[in-house]
Amino acid sequence: MTIAVYPGSFDPITNGHLDIGIRAAKLFEKLIFGVYDTPAKKLLFSTAERVEMVRQATVDLPNVEVTPFSGLTVDFAREVGAQAVVRGLRVGADFEREFEMALMNKKLSPDCELVCLMASLKYQFLSSSLLKEVASLGGYIDDLVPKTVAVALKRKVHSRV
Ligand code: ADP
Description:
Blueprint: E1 3-8, H1 15-25, E2 30-36, H2 47-57, E3 64-69, H3 73-79, E4 84-89, H4 95-108, E5 113-118, H5 128-136, H6 147-160
Parallel strand pairs: 1-2, 1-4, 2-3, 4-5
The protein binds adenosine-5'-diphosphate.
């Protein structure tokens, strides 16, 4: 069975992440969204909240699973029997970082391939961090995230003021 993991912070999942997930799920028999438990960035949502939002966003995709993980992505991939790691590339910002990580991952786990999908044009400039900034300032974000995420974001932002 061809299995891939799609790792990320997903803080929170956006329509850009989802677009990559939907497209990757067509390429592999099973796609596992791996939600980093402790990424090296400040988080707005807990791991349980991030996992739940990804689960709800992907509920209609039969070959998609969602699981939290900690430690190296390549170890997570090995544990779940994945042959590939999926990432999304936006114009400019992502390439160098992904290349660097891909070379390190290749050294750590030579059999694991990186599959990068180009971000769709309409999501090129969408990031979770920008989304959180706009939401915290009361901007309209409903067309950039799944419905449950829009609700959760507004609730979180209000609970913080
Ligand atoms: P990380 O902390 O690993 O960067 P993110 O949740 O920010 O986690 O992103 C996970 C993956 O999704 C990365 O490969 C990132 O480049 C990709 N990604 C983020 N936003 C978008 C988007 N708007 N369109 C396509 N891919 C995206």
